[in-house]
Amino acid sequence: DQQVKQNSPSLSVQEGRISILNCDYTNSMFDYFLWYKKYPAEGPTFLISISSIKDKNEDGRFTVFLNKSAKHLSLHIVPSQPGDSAVYFCAASAVQGAQKLVFGQGTRLTINP
Amino acid sequence: ETGVTQSPTHLIKTRGQQVTLRCSSQSGHNTVSWYQQALGQGPQFIFQYYREEENGRGNFPPRFSGLQFPNYSSELNVNALELDDSALYLCASSFSGTATDTQYFGPGTRLTVL
Fold it and tell me: What 8-state DSSP symbol labels residue A95?
């Protein structure tokens, strides 16, 4: 039972353009959402998060959008840079209870020069 | 300030053996979580320890067990290894263990079961 899904295994974007990564979830109890970035041979690195009381959160070049009715979130990276090439994981958790993150399968983003 | 460290980096075991993986939390963090990441998948939550007590568990059998020590470092023990246990095991620490607290991950231990 995949509660968090990233349907695109890979995405290729030209440097300077916008990268949009998508994520869907099924569990209505999730109320906190995060994006992590992972380079080879490193652990996932926290990128940005959003609470269910918001529909948008920005941090520099990164913006996360949350559509609760559609159970969908997306990560926008503008402008995309070569250093953004990595695997991106969407994760969700419920604020109540243990700090348990449920991850999607990941999307490999490649930024082409 | 040192980040989360894990040892060993790589490990090869045979089916039926037992393994212990180690994690040192980031300075000042009292919560540690363990995740299993199979090839091509996202990390899956195994369990969490807060101040030396298990604070939540994912859908893993009892042969996956853990410990957290007074200095908040942690161990993950897996008994009776199976081929499907081959994966990257990630440890993450956080300051307080609340859901909105950022988890910082170590680089992982790659376990291969033959």
Answer: S
